[in-house]
Specification:
By secondary structure, the protein is an all-alpha fold. The protein is 48% helix and 0% strand. It is built from three helices and no strands. The protein has helices at 29-52, 69-87, 89-95. Helix 1 packs antiparallel against helix 2. The longest helix has 24 residues, at 29-52.
């Protein structure tokens, strides 16, 4: 994100982790968007890993990944929890120090 959209390490600022409203830190906008992208990517990869580790003798593509209803419910629940952490303003600003993402 920092290298594809921004200017690499030139966009990193030391004060992005300090307390205070993120509206007062426009120079950290790209850092907050990068955090949101990494959070969403890691969340989806961990959920995919749950399906992959379900059966170690066969790969995911050779087994029926949706036969375990509890794993499916847990995955849907986790995705439903991950979406508000990115798109609800108070949670993503104050708690996770990230911002809303678009096409990233």
């Amino acid at each position: 994100m920092l290298y594809g959209v921004g200017n690499g390490t030139a966009d990193l600022h030391g004060e992005c982790n300090e307390d205070g409203p993120i509206e007062n830190k426009p120079q950290c906008e790209l850092v907050y968007r990068a955090r949101s992208v990494v959070f969403a990517t890691f969340t989806l990869l961990i959920l995919l890993l749950g399906y992959e580790c379900r059966r170690l003798s066969k790969p995911l593509v050779m087994s029926n990944p949706f036969s375990n209803k509890y794993l499916n419910y847990a995955t849907i629940f986790c995705v439903a929890l991950a979406i508000p952490t990115i798109y609800i303003p108070w949670i993503n600003d104050e708690v996770f120090r990230q911002t809303i993402i678009g096409w990233e």
